[in-house]
Amino acid sequence: MTTLDPGTKSVPLSITEDEAAVYDRQIRLWGLEAQQRMRNATILVVQLKGVATEAIKNIVLAGIGKLIVVDSDDVAEEDLGAGFFYRDEDIGKKRVDAAKARIESLNPLVTVETSSDSSLLKNDAVDTLIASVDMVCVTDVDRTTLVRLNDACRKMHKPFYSGGTYGLLGYIFCDLLQHDYIAPDRSSQKDVAKNVKNTAVYVSLRTALQHRWTGMTRRQTKELNPAIPLAVLAIWEFQATHAGALPDDPAAAPELEAIANKLIAEADVHKQVLSSIPKELVETLSTTAAHEISPVCAVVGGLLAQDILKALAAREPPIANFFTFDGNLGGGTVVRMSMP
User: Fold this and answer.
1) Phi and psi at residue 127, to the nearest 5°
2) 32 against 170, higher pLDDT
3) Reduced to 3 states, what is the DSSP secondary structure of residue 214?
4) Number of C-beta neighbours around residue 310 at 10 A
5) How far apart are the first and last CA of the chain?
6) CB of 289 within 8 A of CB of 259?
């Protein structure tokens, strides 16, 4: 285990000629200023399962400055499928200890710190840790933990990402506070290339969970595939009543179905689109939600990393603010939950 240094952030670093050569393609794509922001960014990742594995690979290769990973769990046999940082001989070791050298080998220019001390995520210690980083990414944890850590990030004025998978379903939520970014002016003349500054105001997960679908047309509702985001919320509610455990038995289907249908009614979803959760979706979730499926982790983790880098570069609009992926269809949608 590496001892974390939650001290004052260092003086911003300039990209060297050697680094410019390594990141040449990205600099031409995003610009030197954007790459410089990445170079000076410290990102905290909590929990090192399949989604985090894929996200870490991409942000480390892209050239962030420092990665801090906190995970107190041991490598289990089921981690070997989606967790490509792990090997058979790592079973029983701390996840962060098994993965650290392999993360470092991806890009020696990135500083990697790890800890298996779960107390870092509690009480005053979490505020100190969050204050020392530029962005927080929490993966594969329950709703209570997500809300608590998002609230801590808001308190310390730090942008927050979360993501995870439940069998064939996956999600990404982000709270970037007030986020400024540059994007092409879609309203300008076609023959004139012009970028404009935009600002998006995000909300906390606590607020996002109060989202209602009231007033949306049938077409608008159908395009957002509401069964999937509401299924994710139903899984979170199931965990809240089962000490954080995920459904992993066909016998859980009736309870999960009842929870989902209650959420659908409360959210005021257009009844001609979704009056109740599809039974086949509930039956699948009741047996697969507790298990990681490698391709789903790869998709969700890849998109999570892409959005983190987009937010750091301040180029193009990031997710606003709840993305869900349906592995049955191979597609995803973004729901603007309670955002102004």
Assistant:
1) -65, -40
2) 170
3) coil
4) 17
5) 43
6) no
pLDDT of residue 48: 95
Q: What angle do CA 208, 212, 215 make, to 5 degrees?
A: 140
Per-residue model confidence (pLDDT) at position 109: 87
What the chain holds in terms of domains, given with CATH numbers, is 17-181+294-334 (3.40.50.720), 206-288 (no CATH)
More confident site: 11 or 273: 273
204 Cβ contact list (under 8 Å, min separation 6): 147, 150, 151, 154, 175
- Cα separation, 94 vs 115, whole angstroms: 9
| Pairwise pLDDT comparison (15 vs 223), residue with the higher score | 223
Write the DSSP symbol of residue 88: G
Q: Where are the extended beta strands (E) located within the chain?
A: 42-46, 66-70, 111-115, 135-139, 160-166, 169-175, 178-184, 195-201, 322-326, 331-335
Averaged pLDDT for residues 113-121: 93
pLDDT bin (cut points 50, 70, 90) of residue 30 is low
**3-class SS of residue 330:** coil
Q: Any bridge partners for residue 180, and if so which?
A: 199
Gyration radius from the chain CA atoms: 20
- Could you tell me the CA-to-CA distances from 204 to 160, 182, 307, 319, 333 in Å, in that order? 9, 23, 17, 14, 20
> Is there a contact between 324 and 171 (Cβ–Cβ < 8 Å)?
yes
Please enumerate in sequence order all residues whose Cβ is within 8 A of that of 156, keeping only pairs 6 or more positions apart, or say none. Answer: 127, 130, 131
Q: What's the average model confidence in pLDDT over 311-337?
A: 92
Strand pairing of 169-175 and 160-166?
antiparallel
What is the tens place of the pLDDT at every residue in 200-216? Answer: 999 999 999 999 999 88
Task: Return d(Cα 247, Cα 291) in angstroms, integer.
Answer: 10
In 3D space, the residue among 190, 193, 232, 197 whose CA is nearest the CA of residue 211 turns out to be 232
Cβ count near 77 (within 10 Å): 10
CA distance 172 to 165: 9
- Residue with structure tokens 């790459």? 35
